[in-house]
Amino acid sequence: MNKEIAMPSDIKPVKRGEIYDADLPEDEIGSVQAGRRPVLVTQSNWLNRKSPTVIVAMVTTKIKNPGMKTHVVIPLRKGLRQDSMVMTEQRKTISKTQLLEHRCTLDKSEMKAVKRACSAS
User: Fold this and answer.
1) The domain that contains 66 carries what CATH number?
2) In a domain, 60, yes or no
3) CA pair distance 22, 30, nearest whole angstrom
4) What is the pLDDT of residues 80-95, one digit of tens each?
């Protein structure tokens, strides 16, 4: 029996490829990203419709090792303050309630590069 699970109406609808500001815990240690920062939704849209949580990849404006297989550089656009980089080696599951302002959405070719980078991580 394949029953659809209804998602509560108060859960934020999100889509794969969207970049949001997120409120991440400040108590992270080492190189783990924390605080208010941009994240990219990498979870499938099917799960995005069903779940109160979402898998995201960290986004940074510090472009280090852009040739690394797990990094995808995103050029400046409306919603981003400067060129940025998706770090697919830094993915985590967060509550959708931690997602704040929507910044922008990546196009299909950028998401294809993100998919390759996720496979490398």
Assistant:
1) 2.30.30.110
2) yes
3) 19
4) 999 999 999 999 999 9
